[in-house]
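thread from #wetlab-drylab

HS: before we spend reagent money on co-crystallization trials with adenosine-5'-diphosphate, can we at least see a predicted complex? here's what I'd submit
DV: go for it
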Amino acid sequence: TCAAGDSQTVVIGLAADSGCGKSTFMRRLTSVFGGAAEPPKGGNPDSNTLISDTTTVICLDDYHSLDRTGRKEKGVTALDPRANDFDLMYEQVKALKDGIAVEKPIYNHVTGLLDPPELIKPPKILVIEGLHPMYDSRVRDLLDFSIYLDISNEVKFAWKIQRDMAERGHSLESIKASIEARKPDFEAYIDPQKQYADAVIEVLPTQLIPDDNEGKILRVRLIQKEGVKYFSPVYLFDDGSTISWIPCGRKLTCSYPGIKFFYGPETYYGNEVSLVEMDGQFDRLDELIYVESHLSNLSTKFYGEVTQQMLKHADFPGSNNGTGLFQTIVGLKIRDLYEQLIATKAETPVAAKA
Ligand code: ADP
Ligand code: G6P
């Protein structure tokens, strides 16, 4: 029998601005855990939750305390803590972590209203994704691992244009205006959370092309905090060295402007971190195995698992560059962390009784 409190829910926080690749990352993560997560069956069709055998992903927009009209009236954005109920967020994440089901509100993105709540049962892995998973210190302390997707303004702009202009018919001016309008609150409330993240995926314009402003070729940095329990950073060639690597040549096909890797120690917000960086993009995804074989500590279960995952989801955005590669790697590191965590938790009660 498994009473409340005996459960083993591992809680992961994923923070990013909206439109920055959180859902794509979630799809890669749940795939590493063995099954795609889907909306709850038979529930509210506008639910933001995703559920698989192992993992439940909840969207923190569901903790908006002010609906769209309320935000308009008060003149606050969704990014503003005053539009969000951190007490309830804390209570419910804590309950789930303790093995207790909750009635979680639903923020309806279509109507902008708060819908009647849905029942969330404690999963093996709970991912809380959204604007503020690391904002409130009580919620932050519940996280077993945290990730921040840090998309630079130039790249954010390029992605927004692609989506909102091409797919939603917005004008260039209106996209610029909406990014500018979000900026102050983004900088005040969202961006500072990256200092708490165990892993940050930073996405910048390439440095391989002078003055590039297209935002198509990306320089992506995986910033991994040192000293995090159950998380041992990935490295290139030799743990602790500083290395620049151009893999293009006989074994890796690269067209202009090529690919460049970097690995080394750094300081990030006063913390020691290990950095792995990839600038450029792959021409042929099957050749990724060559790069994979030079990376260590990947937490794969068999040789070539990173390449296999990347090939499996070749149609997801970012599969030919460092965003897809590092999201996949972080997924594997989270699986490893989860397995280590449940192994120790399983031992603890026995030890306590002895
Ligand atoms: P979120 O869940 O944070 O809103 P999504 O994963 O839905 O973000 O991505 C939003 C859009 O951003 C995608 O439709 C795509 O156009 C773009 N995008 C996301 N990730 C990438 C990537 N790695 N490379 C290129 N474009 C991306
Ligand atoms: C959600 C998103 C925010 C977005 C908001 C729309 O909460 O997470 O990123 O800004 O919806 O808010 P609005 O006040 O424009 O309806």
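DV: The pocket of adenosine-5'-diphosphate (ligand 1) is lined by residues 16, 18-24, 159, 162-163, 317-318, 323 (CB under 6 Å).
HS: ok that's useful, forwarding to the group
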